[in-house]
Structures are given as C-alpha cells and as structure tokens.
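Q: My collaborator sent me two sequences in one message, no labels, and asked for predicted structures for both. Can we handle them in order? The first one she listed is below.
A: Yes, handling them in the order given. First sequence, followed by its structure tokens:
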Amino acid sequence: MRTVVFLSLVACATAPSSPAASDAGTDATTPRDGGGDVDAGVRAACPGEKTTCSAWNTRHRCEMDGGTKTWVDEACEGGCFLGECEKAACTDECALGDKSAKGTCQLWDMAKSAAAAAAPDGKLVDRARDYDRILRARALADGQVMNPHYQDDALTTLDFYSGTRDAAIWTGSALAAQAFRLRATESPDAAAQVRSMVDTLHRDFAITGAPGALARFVLPTSLGIPTEWTRGGADYCVKEDAHCNVMYDGKPHLWEGGISRDQYTGVMLGYALAYDATHDEAVRRIIRGDVLAVAEELAKKRSLTVNVVVNNLPPVPRNVTFENVILIPEEFVGGRVTVTVDSGNVGENTIRGMREFVPDFSMIVREVLGASPAVPRSSTAIMLNAFFAMALHMAKGAEPTRYAALKTYVDASAPGWLSVAEKWDYSPNCGSGYFANHIAYIMGYVGATVEEDPARKARSLAVLEGRLYAGLRDHGNAYFTYLWSGAKGTTGPEVLAANRDLAEFPVGPRLHPPRDLTADPRYPHDPSCTESGAPMADTRAASKVVVAVRERAIEDFMWQRHPWKLKDPGVARQVMPGVDYLAAYWAARAHGLLADDRPGTCARFVP
C-alpha cells in the first residue's frame, strides 16, 4: 500500500477568499478591514493585482496600505461584473438550485430587482446555466465527469456511472469551460469551480506515484460509487488496469491506469486555460507543478531494460533508449516496461508501464527491433508542441532554472515536432476514429494560443488554421470554429454559422434515445459507408451531408464525434453530462464571438 501526500488548494491562496453577500441577500459584506465604505481614491491599487467579484454584488480588490497589500471586499451599489461595480450587471455566484444559509440560488434580474425564471429553451446563457446545474447535480462522481445511468424513467435513483475511462479528458474539458467562463464574466462561482476541478485533476496525477503519470479516474473506496466495472458486485480490483487500496488524503482509493494520450489532452487543455484565467496563485502553483512534471519527464532521454514481445513470441529483455515517454512503475510487468510489437504493422503496439508521446513511432520500434520505416504521428507532435509551450509559459518568471533547461530542450526539438505536425491531414474513413481529430485540434489550439516564441507561434497557428481547421471546417462543429477564430483573433461568416449551430444544441438533460434517420431524404446515405462491417462497425450508416445539430445522435461530447451518423441504438435512462455545450458556449463568450443574450441577470442566493 502506497501513501500519497494530499495537497489542498485552500490552505495557500495568495489572496484570502472572500465572504459572499449577506444573509439578507441585498446587502453585501463590509470591507474586511472594518473601515466601512471604501473610497477607491484613498489608497493606491496594488501593482499587478486584479480586481475581481467575490459575490454577485461585491467587489474584491487589493489596496496598498502603508506599503502592505490589503484585500478588501467592497459593497457595490448595484452588482459586480468583470471585477467592477455595475448598476445594471452582475455575475453568477452560484449554480441554479444550490442551497446555502443565504437561501436558494435563483436567477436575478437587475432591472426588476427581483428573481426571474430561467429560460434554457430560448436563451443560450440560461442553457449554459442549466447544463452547469445538471453537470453538478448528476454527472460528477467525486468531482469527475462521468455518464449517469438511472434505474427509473424519472431519473431519481442512480444505477451506475459509465464513461469512467474517459473521466480525465471530460473533467479537463469541464475545467476548460469554467476557465472560459471565468475569463468572460469573472464569476466567483466559476473561480470556485476552477479551484475544485484543479484539485481533482491534481489528485489524478499525484495518486499514481510517478511524476507526470495520470490516472483515468480516481474514487475513494469508502464512497462506494457504482460504475460499469462494479455492477452486480463485480470485483473491480481484478481488472488489469485497476489499482486498489492506494492511500490518498488519509483514505483508501482506487484508480484506473492504462492511460492514453487523449486523456492527457483534455487535462492539459483545462490546465492551460485555468492557469491564465485564475487569480489564485495556489491554483497556478499546482497547475504549474503538474505541467512541468509532464514536460520534464517527456524531455528525459532514458536508458532502461524492457521486455520486448514480437509477434506473440516469448518476451526478450532488451536495453533501449527512449525519449518523450512517461514511466508508470505501478504498471511494470515483472519490474519492467513491456513493449509488444507486430513486425508486420509497426504502428500497432501495446506498452505496459509507460505512456509514450513519440512524434514518430519508429523511434520506439527501432530500439526494440533494430530497424523500422518512419511512422510519423502528426497528432502526437501537436501534443508535444502544446505541452512544452505550456511548460515554458508557466515556468517563465516563476521557475527560472527549470525554464532555462526546458527552453534549451524545446529550442532544439520543437522545429522537428512542428515539421511533423505540419503534415496533419484529415482522413474521412466514414467517420470512423473521428475522436482523433478532436484531441489534435484542442492541442493545436493550445499551441497556437500559449506559444510565446514568435516563429513557433506562427507555425503553430498555421497548423491550427491551415491543416486542422481547413480539414474540418465544413463539419458543423461550432466548438472547432470558436477555438480557431479565438486563436486567430478574427470573426467572419463561419462564426455566425457556428452560433446558429450552437443554438440548435438540445436543452438538457441529454437523455440518450435511439435515432434513425436512414429513411430521411434530407440525409442521403453515403453508399461507400455500410451499416455493418468495416469501416463502419462503430458508427453505422453515414449521410453524405452533415446532420443538423438538433438531430444528431446524443454523444458524450458531440464535437469529438463525426456529424454524419444516421443511426444510433441509444441507451435507456442514460444522461450525457453536457460538457460539450458548456465548452463551446463559454469558448465563444470568452473570445467575444457570442453576446450574452440575457444581460443584466445573474445566478445569486435569494432568501
């Protein structure tokens, strides 16, 4: 049994957290220094510190008092929005339906100075508020995004959660949505959600016991949260990737291993956005620590002995040198990494005890077989470029020694990664494996927005625009359009089309009924894509034209699934979390591509 030290976000914030509005609901807290009404001109503002909202009608700001920084909460005459007191605007301090000593969280109309009914069917911002409510009420298993299944049609009794092996990518994407929301509104509720989700994802790194190694999901044993792996009393701990009775925060936990590259992409997207959105240095420090651990592990050149299995023959030990890999000792077999290779298809492999991010898989195969043709992987090169751009961005000014070492490595390596990334090309394949486009795309966005070196930034943006977006722009994917337009800093007819598509996104909760459009004349069947057999076994019949957003099959994350699917069996009493709507909507708002369609309202506690 291994013990992992728990790191709390709460204990080490640079600025103290602020109390919310008073129990009366209309009077905000007095300044924390006891000085009554604060005259903003009396003291100078603190250099480098940003004014934020600590409640729907409270401004949290820093003042210089005799050379010392003092944080005060200032009651606003109206509401607080984007860190400033505004008579006609306010920002969300809670999720609709939440309850506290101050009352119930309701929608508040500033113009009427009264509670108002939310309208998720007609207002996109209210739809986002509703999906946020649904996510927290139904789809978070100890803070991680999963898909709830219910025993009854009324959705009152939870049966189990599915989607556990994808919990990391969608929790990271939910963090990205909250970070976009924080940028767009400075909502104290969004800030609290960023802190909470970063804490959860940090646990996913820390519990593995290896620097840079990520768990797919983590659950405290004592909670007994039902998953697809424990239905009917099944013993989860007999699974190959299961790790049980690992101590974390003084309690036994279980965690899922066998991590894949796609899980990292969601987490790193969320971390990249949260790092720049948050004003909490404790949160930034945790994110920076995890990201630098990933980058520094990937930068190491390692000499080690691995067991090699070729064409199902008995394993043979071999001394190898690997780069761009993360070791996971908890998953070693017989104390070693095990690499299984098919000599007839060097792109197919399994590796236990290590997660590789090599931009050309021949780097692995040559070490274990002695020779290999080139196997370039553009998506993985895009990931490497993004990971290291994040690491340099976060280490600069905060970790000078580590920054210098990483910069030397990146300056030498990034041109090669970008050369591979620039070869990315879209392969239709009747939509099979479409999820790979999503994970490349979100890392292309990170590389294009976080990169600080001008030459690399230009090349990264060219990959996002000239390869990724150019290949996927006609797929009715609003999320991809918002990320591309936001990175480029431009708007156009594509954004208007994306806004229309997003408006078609169904109102929650997103149940998973069967769909069959195969007889619909608006969606002629593509004869090259069959309903069964390769390559359509996982996607069924495909249309020649993009299916409208409102009619697409319900998916875990719409934007990672292809838009031509005509037939889906559905899953009874399953609810999809809605992170796909939240990520797209708040990306559009943060990048100024979509206006608030219900200005002057916010979610606040009402007695």
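Q: And the one she listed second?
A: Here it is, processed independently of the first:
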Amino acid sequence: MTQVSLSFSSYSADVSAASDAEFLKAIEWERGANPSLKAAASTGDVKAFIAACQQHLRQAKGDAATGYSASILWSHAAFPDEAELVPLLEEAIGVAKPRKTQRRPAVKATRTFAQRVPSLIYALTGEPQTVQTDNAAFALIASLELLACTDNKLRPQQFWRLWRHSLLSAVRLIRALPEEVDPTIPTDVNLMERGEVPFLAGLVFEGIAGASLTMKAGKKELGSDLIGNTDTDGTPHADLVERLPLWLAPLVRATCIGRAFDLRVWNRDQEERLQSVVERSIPLCRPDGRAALSNGLKLQPLPVLNAAAEVCGLPEIGPVGSYLKSVKRAISGKPPARPRADGVLSMPSNQSDFARFALLRSDWTVQADSVAIAHHRHFPQLDVTASGRPLIHGDWTIKLTIGGVPVELAEEWTCVCWQSDPDADYIELQMLGPGKLRVERIVMLSRAERFLLLADSVSGVPNQRIEYQSELPLSDDIQPRPDTATREVQLAAKGFRARAFPLAVTQDRVQSTPHNFAGADGKLTLTQVAQGEGLFAPLILDWGVSRSRGNAQWRTLTVTEDGRVIGPDIAAGHRLKIDDLQLLIYRSLKDTGESRAVLGYHTWNETVVGRVNKKGDVDPFLMVEA
C-alpha cells in the first residue's frame, strides 16, 4: 500500500480523499517547524491543530498586522471567468451594494467578518478545478490572502476548510507548472502563478516540508520579473503597459503581506526599483481614473496605485503624490486643488529605449496634456489626453505603397531622437524599410500652447509614386465633425473642443487635390500622394480654448536652397495661423550639404518648429540636427 504524504516536494493523490485526521497525519514537516503544529498534526487532532495554526499566524504578524482588504480584486480583470467571486469578495470587506431589485432593510444589524464570508469560502473551496485553468491562481491567491490576513476572525471550521483546500491547491499548482514560461499567458498571470503563489504559500504554510524553498523561489521570481521588465529609472517595458496595473498588483500585494509578517520581500536594489516603477506608473493613470494604453481592457488602476504609493512611502507633497491625490479628487467630483507655486521639482516626461516607451506631458496637474507612446509593435500605440480629456487611444497605423508595391513595415520602431525642455517634448521614431527607405514618425507636444504635432516623414525613395495613409483612433466620446468650407476636422465632446489641421493638404475644399483628410467611424484618416524621393505628412491637433473658434489658415511654403526652389520631396515647410498663434513646421527629407531657407528663415537643421511673430520673424523652439 502506497504511503499517503503531502508536502511541497511530494504529493500523493490519495491525500485529497483522506479524512481530516488522515490529512493532517500525511503532512511532512521541516525539522524546525512549530512544535504545537507538528504535535497536533501527528495525532490527527484537527481541533488542536486549528487553534495552534491560527495562533501561529497571529504571532507571526504581531504588531505589524493589517486588516483584510481583498487586494486580489486588483487582479480580477485578468480573470473574467471568476466574475462571480467579485461580489463575494466585496461583501467580505463590507463594500457590497444591494442589487437594484433588492430592498434595503430599514434596520440592518452589523455582521461580523465570519458572518460575511461563508459564501466566499464555499465558492473558493468548492469542487477543485484542474490547475491548467486560468482560474487557479486567482482563487488560490484569494484564499491565501484570507488565511494570511484574517486568521482568528474566521471560525475554526471556516479556517480549516480554507486551509486544507488552499494547501492542496498550492501544492498541485506549483508542482504542475512547466519549467518553461508559456508566452501565450499574460505576464501578470505568469507572475502570479510563478511568483506570488509560491511566496504566499510558503508564508502561510510555514513549517511544511519544502515551504521555505517554495517561498524563496517565489521571492526570486518576483524580484527577477521586477528588474527584468523595467528600465533602471523604473519605466516598465511597453509590453507591460497595456496591463500595467495587473502586473503591478502581485508586486504590491506581496509587499503588503510580507510587511504584515515582518518579512523583507526585496533587497535594496529591488526596493528602489519598485518605488521608481510606482513613480512612473502613477502618471499613466488618466484623470478619469482609467489606465493609459489599456487597449480596451477596463482596468481600474487607482486601488493598486494608492496601495503602491502608501507601501513605497511616496510623499503627497511631491509631484507624483500630488498628481495621484488630484486624480482621486477628480474621480470623487471635487474641484482640482490649487497647484503649488514652488516651481517644477521634476520633469513630468520620460523616455526609455529599453522599454520602447515614452511619456510626453505638459505638467503634473490633472488638466495636463499628455502623450503616452509605446513603439514595440508593428504600429506605435498612442494615448493622448488634451486638458486632461482622452482624445486619441490606440494604434497609429500607416499604409505605404511605393511604385504600386505595398511596403512591408518592420515589427517595431526605434527611438532616434528625444528632447524635453520647458517649451515642448519631442520624440522621433524610425523604421527602416527595403533599400534606403526610411519612415520617421514625429510627435511633439507643446508644453504651454496646447497643441500636438503628429507627422510622418518618408525618405530614401527612388523617385517613384508614393501613396501614404495613416489613421488615428479617437477616444470613445470624441465626435469628429468635418468643416464645410475647409479640410479642417473638429473634434468635439461635452465641454471639450479640439481642431485637426492637415498642413500638407490644400485648405479649401473647392480646390481639387489627390490628398484627403477625413474624420469618420471614430478615427482620423490622412491620405497623401506624391511623386519623387520622399513625402512629409504633418498634422496639428489644437485645443487652445482661446483659439477654439478662431479663424485658421494654413499653407505650404516655398523652400529654397542656394537661391533655387526645391521640391517637397527634398524639404517641406508649412505655416499655420490660428488667431495670434502662428507656427512654422519645417522638415528636411534629404541632406544635400547646403542650408535651406523657408519663410525668410535659414537653417541647417533637419526639423524646425517655431513661432512666427507679427513681423514675420521665426522664433524656433524646437530644432533637431540632421
């Protein structure tokens, strides 16, 4: 007869069908395990074991004990099949709301924690699921968090049912994990299964054979994932940004529970990196409480960010902490607080080549203009807010046909230029095509004037017909309205108005052109056609309140070199005037070794963006060398 055994290094299938007393006797213990636990288990005394186990967990936490917050809810968006657990978890922490069809009693007696959790414990410990399902990690971590944070608040039988089921589930899941990480599983789910589950299981089931090694392995996985997926300044890799709150959740959860047990989860470098990651993550929470670049996932990042800021000791008077506080005020419907007049303590923008990610941002307020851009895939992804309002969200696509042949684009883009100063933030991305073909995507956000330049520069073409099209997906509540007289497109939402100007497209609709600019079906589409060695396609989005209804004029400028006019496939210049704002946008597509002149302004630079004053003089605030 096969001996029944249970530990993190061995598992007998017969143990799941064993009685409670047999189950306890089957557990293998480490040499230094708590004597009371070992004694009760060896005799199969369930009642004594429960008392000893609850006391052991309570003593392990000591004065550092924290209340139960069901922080597993931070991860529920990663497990949509576990939606039925959400109201039960909310009920456990006392925030569940009655259904619309449920009448609220006139007088409701206060229920204890043990009275609120029977349905949750039954749901968590029902028929065991196979560990191959995506649900295993969510339910298991919910169970481990309950055990770690509530101990004596549970009735003895509630505690035992949860403890036995969680131990079995943890051993099964950990032993069933393949050595190689499945790339089809989201990073945050892998982190929960390979890092958080072993860490929490080793913590809760301390003393069982293999638990200490299991916890050590979990800590190692958490730490390596934190360091390996972020830049040295804390910028998370673009692969993570789409699900950033979900990836951050297990790191913060483990930190909170580890501190409750007076257990150090991170070494010094990892602790500093986690704080930097939190500081980089908070600005990616929009003023509406949604996560930037979430790609349709309905994430609620505020709960995990609040906990992360607290656990990292982030000061509220600093720029990042103040922004988080302002977002919470905005979500609650309170007016924004008056900004502190102590200057800019740190720039609100950042860029990382390693992470393939950049954040362009005007300031630290909730009314800020910002552009989050991830460029690790076939198309760069944009998340644009204007005066704190979502404007653009999704893939910035491009289609390019040269000489009648569609061009295959690279799978990712490289940042070739980054500049951040008091006037503007600027990033330039590059994709190299066949031959000498280069496509550069330009993003420039004005820090004071409330406008955004988005442009594509195509160069290195062997003098052929170029057909170009790009699309920008608008946020859900933005309605595009084409102007009747010009090719301007107005972007409207309740209490908000922006304007889009295709500078290389003829302004008046009465003038025929092969180009086109349209706003329909929730997106802006720009189409241009050219014959030659290159093409420049600039688009200005403007949301300055004082200019929202002002008269706008734009035109293509003549560019000269050594006294002769050159074509727009060599260098292009454009001028936009809206009321008292006049802009010059210049781009060189081919370096000939000579200086150029546009609107009376002489330059050797590849890119120039400047203001044009009333006298016609150009005051450049962005200059990029070739």
